[in-house]
Amino acid sequence: MKHTLIFLIIFLTVISESGCKKFLNVKPLDNLAGNSFFQDRADVESNLWDIYGLLRDKLGKAPLLPWSGDLRSGMMAPSPEITGRQYRVLVPTNQLNVLINNSSIDFWSLFNMSSLQDWKIFYQVVQSANDLYYELGKRSISGLTAQDIKRYQAEAVFLRCMAYFLMVRQWGDVVYYTDAYHEKALPRTDMVTVVNNCLSDLDKVKDDLPWAYTDPAYQGIRASKGSVLALMMNLDMWNAGFDKTNAQKYEQQCAELGSEIVNSNAYELLPMSDFHKIFKGRTKESLFEIAQNSNYGEIIMYETFPDMVLHYPYKRPISQHQYSFCYFRSSFLRMLFPQGQPDLRVQYWFDENMLDDNGNFQYLKFTNIYAISDNEDVNPDNDIIIFRYAGILLLRAEALADLGQDAEAIKMLNLVRTRAQATLYTGAGGQPLQDAVFAERAKELMGEGHYYYDLIRTGRVMDPRWDYYPLTQTQFNERGWTWPLDPTVQNQNPYIQLNSYWLK
Predict the structure, then answer these.
(1) How far apart are CA 396 and CA 295, in angstroms?
(2) What mean pLDDT value characterizes the chain?
(3) Domain for residue 280, yes or no?
(4) What pTM does this model have?
(5) DSSP code of residue 327
(6) Domain around 7
(7) Cβ proximity of 298 and 234 under 8 Å
(8) How far, in Å, CA of 16 to CA of 18, rounded?
(9) In this structure, are residues 184 and 494 in contact, taking their beta carbons and an 8 Å threshold?
(10) Do 48 and 132 contact (CB within 8 A), yes or no?
(11) CATH no. for residue 53?
């Protein structure tokens, strides 16, 4: 009975905080209790959508990916025409304690800045996924075959590991557990161990998911085999950066997983002219994304990445959006996109003010706009793309370049360059190739929340060529790349140690 009550509380929490149900027309579970849970496939589907919704809620509660993944590198600068908005300086200069704890900062409450130190919703994803996995294994559910059960359990494992992946990149060591209805207080586990545990768990279930779903609405939104392999590749390359003794093992695993994705023919690079479709979502380039749908109010309202780099007519009203809040530094863009070299990404994603170093700058990659009048101040209606095929090709290229398998690495790199009609790479292997692959990820994934994490795991976060405010080796070793952790976590768990770098 105790477990039943805990399960009910968790379900009601999931329902109250998630937002992916409405546009999917999923039956709510708040009228079910006890053994009424999981009577049929619809109940399982509803619970899964709610867990996906929790993940979206966390990523949408505050500008976690835009600030942690892109703004923090310092390669974005505050537009001089815009006053206030201190976060534009505090994030890249690593003044994160000031950002989180000073409620007088502009938009502090609106952007929910204090939640950037809070991992609670991530753990709701973990706990809900663990409970679902357990219940699927012990119940007889009408209409589900043994294969169905394994597929749903694989989705639960994916969601748990996705939450751990996102937490590790944000805070380093985390509390790790996989048991259902978890109650025991535990200390934080070393992040390399957490990642290895996730890799092991994902490897056991990766073949239980399909490459694609028959329902096109599920494309990229629900975990597929490609989603699992993409997550494993990213986990491998994270550990390659921190577990140096075993770096080649992780890189080889990443390369092999990437080969499996490529050889599946389940994914493709869309033409550059279709870039709006990529970020609207549910395309064959998507391996995993978080759904947004403006028709149901299920959008990230404040300070998305596009909100920082667009102005009128893409942002309205004109009186408030004459200038972009931020711009990419022209020195950075010139390094990535040398003048005179062809690249369709310049043509489609920038305008004539690309190198202006002021608020006239715009980045047009995410201009799926639904504002039609000047009394609407809204953000682009895009899905949050977590993994897509271009990024996976380049991650495989990176692993291969690190392993010295230059020919295959160049092949992967040039697949992405060919799509952009950019100059093909014909240079040497070794460091020049590694830098070329890294730069290609910076170009291709700009604004998608990957860049600063790539800096961290490759050590380039200490290199002023790539990070405008680089960390010192001492700061890196002390994990100055993490975010502060909310001290209130110690109220519920006395074993938790806070990130020491942020206690100075």
Answers:
(1) 37
(2) 91
(3) no
(4) 0.93
(5) E
(6) 1-61+87-206+476-504
(7) no
(8) 6
(9) no
(10) yes
(11) 1.25.40.890
